[in-house]
């Protein structure tokens, strides 16, 4: 931050902008000047969400059954005590990654002292609903030596999810019958696969802007460099679209109508929803008009939050061990496709509404 533009900068004129934060204090900026090196704080930002100022954050470690070390960040609501309050509904939100070794997969990412930032559609918002949140549990897909990681994708995905679920249950912070899985993009692909191949772990799922049929991305995806024709079985086995008949738990699909990511075109959710509906799966498809891969409009963000909260309150919070699944009792009720431009009004999945937001704003909210 020194004012000098030309020539060598002497140490006594050095000025550096620094930032400081902790688990409970949001980022503040200071100027550090030489030679005294005394920081002068230049910002005093208030806490962005004081209602959650005392949320509990902990970086936890646990192990997959094949010995791979995993990490995650566990968030608990303010004032929550597992021994007194008992287990909570839990939302697990993640995104898989590929690695070439177990050691690389087991590396710790992030900092335990980082301030817990909460974005517009962050899963941490559900701390206000008294959920426990397991954010970013590592889901490593490992291919050592000549082995390709995705050749054992489903096996490793399920093993990582089982380890995460067992850990939150062991800690007493999650009710075993009230655990939801969710993710965005490749995380949505993960969530759909887990509902297909590990239905015993979760009560419901939330999948935003995902791709579910890998034959529609035939020239590779993520870190998969082989084409569909080179690894046909892998593409088929990894596609939750091909396992739609195995999904029994409720799943919420959300997608931008104008997704410009070549790997997650809107038709992915549209076709996956029709496959789910054809097999009687409790499902809901929400299309956000004019939105791309990420969501920007206030109306879209608020609607995503409403849809997600409604789904969790309906299919995660009320679950008990004596209930089988809401799928049998709710068939024909939730199998709907809607657009955010129509607010809470439900329409048939073939009636794709394209009404402009501004023309409906007065009646939406």
From TrEMBL:
<dbReference type="InterPro" id="IPR029058">
    <property type="entry name" value="AB_hydrolase_fold"/>
</dbReference>
<dbReference type="GO" id="GO:0009570">
    <property type="term" value="C:chloroplast stroma"/>
</dbReference>
<dbReference type="GO" id="GO:0006508">
    <property type="term" value="P:proteolysis"/>
</dbReference>
<keyword id="KW-0720">Serine protease</keyword>
<keyword id="KW-0809">Transit peptide</keyword>
<feature type="domain" description="Peptidase S9 prolyl oligopeptidase catalytic">
    <location>
        <begin position="162"/>
        <end position="315"/>
    </location>
</feature>
<keyword id="KW-0645">Protease</keyword>
<protein>
    <recommendedName>
        <fullName>Probable glutamyl endopeptidase, chloroplastic</fullName>
    </recommendedName>
</protein>
<dbReference type="InterPro" id="IPR001375">
    <property type="entry name" value="Peptidase_S9_cat"/>
</dbReference>
<dbReference type="Pfam" id="PF00326">
    <property type="entry name" value="Peptidase_S9"/>
</dbReference>
<keyword id="KW-0150">Chloroplast</keyword>
<keyword id="KW-0934">Plastid</keyword>
<comment type="function">
    <text>Serine-type protease active in vitro against the LHCII N-terminal. Cleaves its substrate on the carboxy-side of Glu residues.</text>
</comment>
<keyword id="KW-0378">Hydrolase</keyword>
<comment type="similarity">
    <text>Belongs to the peptidase S9D family.</text>
</comment>
<dbReference type="GO" id="GO:0004252">
    <property type="term" value="F:serine-type endopeptidase activity"/>
</dbReference>
